[in-house]
Write a structure and sequence with these properties.
The chain has 49 helices and eight strands. The chain is mainly alpha-helical. The chain is globular, with a radius of gyration of 35 Å. The N terminus and C terminus are likely disordered.
């Protein structure tokens, strides 16, 4: 039986009644109007309007079972402008039904647009991967059993599938407003969750698309797989979360009135509300109960079902074993009823709004009804019914949607407790899930095969694979699914079973994969695995395996800073890979060799050529992970050379590729850092901040996220936003706390820690942190990150040396001397590679000279040092570092009183840089020096002078208090010295901080030092 339309609520019953399909029309238990959801409906409509206006928009709608999520969605869908696509997650998804809601959406589009219409929306792209979800969309060769493009590279195929879904939605959104609704996400399979993450993360390119996700919040226990997804999505700026509340007593009464079409008696409304506690589904089931109102929803649901004819109730139990939705033909086959009898028996259930009918079959109006009916089955009934479903599908796979037979069989045979067929069907379902690129579900099915293996004596014969082969498959899929710990366990189990003497190559590859999984999951790596793997394949008989082992060993040794050994392994791996045409191994080896280039950041380095060759080999292998890895390293090398614009562009391309390959969560943060860092260096701070904000708002993963926060903090610090900088540093610290030491993350982080402390006026703390880092960190292995750290430490120490004695704390000068000595010692031993490191070395030399002389004195050598530093930064195109150097050039020139014209020119340039960048502290320093020298900064006189102007309003008494605050005195000590009350001191301190714009006493002291309010050689700056 086929119904031509899906009616809603009472309207459905009226349609069916007019069609002559109902004998008895029961009382409608669904309100004809939406009650108590005006605010939520308005939020949905506002979100759609925002999407239409070009802003990305997504809503996560949670609520307990029966709260009315589906009713809200259906009401919104009926009113929404444009096209609305709705897909529902099925409970079966937990057992391996991947991409279920997207398959439903595609089926809806095929009905509405036809296959040619869908293909036309893909803007010339092939639709082949969509055929994995809906066979009608497969290209002709794949429909006839031919291979999918890139079938041997599942990651690439999965990336293309995600891209095709994105392209399809883009095409639809360009034609008009589009809403994608995914219901019941608490049942979403891992692949569906991954695709949703991908789509929402890329919504900025999907103008006109609103994404809505509903889920049962009361089912999200602590380990529920949806919880981390919701947390990640909640951090995206354009994603809003909404929780549907229960109805108030007045709203419940209005709902009852709408259902009954008249005002309810007060005692009925009170009783229903008390028993339902405002849950709309409970309200519906409680109305009209002739017996005592039951206490649980289970009883309520069963009460409504039990009012149906017995044969209808029996058939509903049969239908419940098929899931929340079951096809008409499948239910007829399992029940043994003819089409006519099936329609007759189910009519009362449709009329009572227990079942919804559409052209293909039936769906329980609420999943709770299906759950209760299924739970009501006796143990024997449960097994027999699932076995009947399995037998029916096995005989006629067409009874279920195309491509779902194996997964449905796995579910039903497992539920029927038939271990033999459960194992066989799980193996077949694993293959089907892999074909659909649903790796998590594939891993779940493989795990089931392994669990059932010992219970099926002829398991190997049944599936045509031995136990080790299943374990190997599980290891491979674990890596694709990101299940590192499980993959390591599978690899260990397989290695215990393999006869290494008989099959050394097989064992070696497993050892390599175990090492990769350990690295992927940041697990403890057994250093002996790769050495043992190399021993196993050193007989000249397993060259392909040996090449992989050598490439992995090279990568491992490089991370241990054993560069000579790493180079030897990488070169040998490259030689073997070329001889046997193993492009993926070639790419991996060349990436390692590029990183090992001794002068990789010099302009005549061979690193970029190697990376270009690696990228070509990775493309030949169609290995998407290596393509992204090549982009990461190429942008890294370019930035190390000081080629900022090129570095940013290469990284931008990598970001787009990572999104297309489905690697945004893992590689996205690294690439975002590689875009933002060169932009910041090139003085494009606004653009860099935008990149950082967008990346931090996206669902990225991994410790590299800490670098994004650190970069955000560095920009805030340079702008003078100390509170923002402190919060960013705190977030970065939290992420780094659980990671092992890496110079590229930790050394810049340590540098920012003491720079921020100094900016906040905590000079002793800044110096102590700098000294500890200089004494404990291995700076010699990482010149790229050590030169900036040494330069910053020397700058802070020089600032302290230049302070008047009264402004320094006890022991500050000794700390500064210790930092300068340590920095000088490390710098003597540190290599200098490329123009960026050369610029830092010159700046460090100038800071050391500044620390070694009184401020009023200067030598020609000092001027030359700062001029060389400024020239180096100007050549690199780094305006902030240039502005700082120009400020020092002018300072030395004015101290010598030799060339005021050149000093004025340097200050004017520095002021313009500070103004253009928004570098407030630098602008204040420049403006103050210009005022002291009576130099007019034409066109830049207002650059960052806000605090300087505020300092002029300090009274004489406030200046006295500020001098003692800067010396580190407490309020009580200040009161005793100035012969005033502690309360009066507190008032003065508050006034001082307000006038200076300081957030605390330390920051006020730092501002006083920067403005030289208490300069011993000059009158106080008022």
């Amino acid at each position: 039986m086929a119904f031509d339309s899906i009616a809603k609520g009472c309207g459905r019953i009226e349609v069916l009644a007019r069609a002559g399909m109902l004998n008895d029309v029961m009382t409608c238990r669904v309100s004809p109007v939406l009650v108590g959801r005006a605010e939520e409906l308005a939020a949905l409509q506002d979100a759609l309007a925002a999407a239409q206006a070009g802003a990305p928009a997504a809503l996560l709608i949670g609520g307990e079972a029966g709260i009315g999520k589906s009713r809200l969605i259906s009401e919104f869908a009926a009113r929404a402008d444009g096209r609305v696509l709705i897909g529902s997650c099925l409970e079966l998804g937990a057992s391996g039904l991947p991409f279920a809601p997207f398959t439903q959406v595609l089926r809806q589009l095929v009905r509405e647009l036809g296959v040619p219409g869908i293909i036309s929306l893909l803007s010339g792209r092939a639709s082949g991967e969509l055929g994995r979800l809906l066979p009608e969309l497969a290209e002709p060769t794949t429909r006839e059993g031919g291979p999918y493009p890139g079938e041997a590279y599942p990651g690439e195929a999965r990336a293309r599938l995600f891209e095709q879904v994105l392209a399809l939605l883009q095409g639809l959104a360009q034609a008009g407003p589009l809403t994608l609704i995914i219901e019941d996400a608490h049942w979403a399979d891992r692949s569906t969750r991954d695709l949703l993450t991908f789509l929402i993360g890329n919504q900025q390119v999907l103008t006109g698309l609103l994404i809505v996700i509903t889920f049962r919040s009361d089912e999200l226990h602590r380990t529920h797989p949806l919880r981390p997804l919701l947390a990640e999505l909640g951090r995206i700026a354009w994603v809003e979360r909404m929780e549907l509340p229960r109805l108030s007593s007045a709203e419940a009464a209005a709902l009852i009135s709408a259902i009954l079409a008249h005002e309810p008696a007060p005692d009925l409304a009170d009783t229903v509300f008390r028993r339902s506690e405002g849950n709309p589904l409970f309200v519906e089931h409680l109305i009209g109960c002739e017996t005592e109102v039951p206490d649980s929803l289970r009883d309520m649901v069963l009460a409504s079902v039990q009012r149906l004819p017995e044969e209808t109730t029996d058939l509903l139990r049969v239908a419940s074993a098929g899931g929340t939705r079951v096809g008409h033909a499948l239910l007829a086959e399992v029940s043994g009823l003819s089409d006519e009898d099936l329609s007759r028996v189910l009519r009362p259930a449709v009329a009572a709004n227990v079942l919804l009918a559409d052209a293909d079959g039936y769906q329980f109006r609420h999943a709770l009804i299906q759950e209760v009916m299924h739970d009501d089955l006796l143990p024997g009934e449960h097994g027999r019914l699932h076995a009947r479903y399995a037998e029916a599908i096995q005989l006629r796979p067409s009874l279920v949607p195309a491509g779902r037979a194996a997964i449905s069989l796995a579910h039903h045979w497992h539920s029927a407790h038939d271990v033999t067929w459960a194992l066989v069907s799980a193996w077949q379902a694993a293959s089907e899930a892999g074909h659909a690129l649903a790796y998590s579900e594939q891993l779940s099915m493989l795990s089931r095969v392994l669990e059932l293996w010992d219970n099926v004596p002829d398991a190997e014969v049944r599936i045509g694979a031995d136990h080790i082969r299943v374990l190997e498959e599980a290891v491979e899929i674990s890596q694709l699914a990101g299940e590192s710990e499980r993959g390591v366990a599978f690899a260990a189990a397989a290695l215990r079973e393999i006869d290494t003497a008989a099959d050394p190559g097989r064992a070696a590859i497993l050892l390599v994969r175990r090492g990769s999984l350990c690295e992927q999951g940041h697990l403890t790596v057994d250093g002996g695995d790769l050495n043992e793997a190399l021993r196993l394949v050193s007989d000249g008989q397993h060259e392909a395996a040996r090449a992989q082992v050598l490439a992995s060993l090279a990568q491992s040794q490089r991370k241990l800073n054993a560069d000579a050994q790493a180079r030897m392994y990488a070169e040998e791996a490259l030689e073997v890979a070329r001889a046997h045409h193993l492009p993926a191994v070639q790419a991996r080896a060349m990436i390692t060799l590029a990183i090992l280039e001794p002068d990789s950041y010099s302009r005549d380095s061979n690193a970029l050529d190697l990376l270009g060759q690696a990228r070509a080999a990775a493309a030949d292998a169609q290995d998407y992970q290596l393509l992204v890895l090549a982009a990461i390293n190429e942008s890294h090398v370019l930035e190390g050379m000081g080629r900022h614009v090129e570095a940013a562009e290469v990284a931008r391309t990598g970001v787009a590729d990572a999104a297309g390959y489905g690697l945004s969560r893992t590689s996205g943060a690294i690439l975002a850092v590689n875009v933002a860092e060169p932009l910041a260096a090139a003085g494009k701070w606004a653009e860099a901040s935008e990149v950082i904000a967008r990346a931090l708002g996206a669902p990225l993963a991994g410790p590299h996220r800490s670098s994004l926060w650190r970069l955000a903090g560095e920009l805030a610090l340079a702008r003078g936003d100390l509170d923002v900088a402190r919060r960013a540093l705190s977030n970065a610290s939290e992420l780094l706390a659980s990671t092992t030491y890496e110079d590229q993350k930790h050394l810049p982080h340590f540098r920012m820690e003491f720079e921020l402390a100094a900016a906040e006026g905590q000079l002793a703390s800044a110096l102590a942190t700098a000294r500890q880092v200089l004494q404990t960190a291995d700076l010699q292995t990482s010149p790229r990150y050590s030169w900036p750290l040494l330069t910053a430490a020397a700058r802070i120490a020089a600032d302290v040396v230049q302070l008047p004695a009264a402004a320094r704390g006890e022991g500050d000068l000794d700390l500064a001397d210790a930092v300068l000595q340590a920095a000088r010692s490390e710098a003597r031993k540190l290599d200098v590679v490329g123009p960026v490191q050369t610029a830092f070395r010159r700046t460090l030399a100038a800071e050391m000279a500044r620390a070694g002389r009184p401020e009023a004195e200067a030598s020609p050598d000092d001027l030359v040092l700062w001029q060389e530093a400024a020239a180096a930064w100007e050549e690199l195109g780094e305006p902030f570092a240039l502005g700082r150097a120009l400020y020092r050039v002018a300072e030395v020139q004015l101290a010598d009183q030799a060339d005021r014209g050149s000093a004025a020119e340097a200050l004017t340039r520095a002021a313009a840089i500070a103004r253009d960048l928004g570098a407030r502290p630098l602008g204040e320093d420049v403006a103050l020096l210009a005022r002291r020298a009576r130099i007019s900064l034409t066109g830049a006189s207002n650059a960052g002078t806000g605090v300087g102007r505020s300092a002029r309003s300090l009274t004489a008494r406030e200046l006295d208090v500020l001098r003692l605050v800067s010396a580190g005195r407490s309020n009580a000590a200040i009161a005793a010295e100035l012969f005033i009350s502690t309360k009066t001191v507190s008032v003065h301190v508050s006034n001082i901080m307000g006038k200076l714009g300081a957030g605390n006493r330390g920051e006020a002291a730092a501002i006083a030092h920067r403005l030289r309010i208490f300069d011993e050689t000059q009158p106080p700056r008022t």
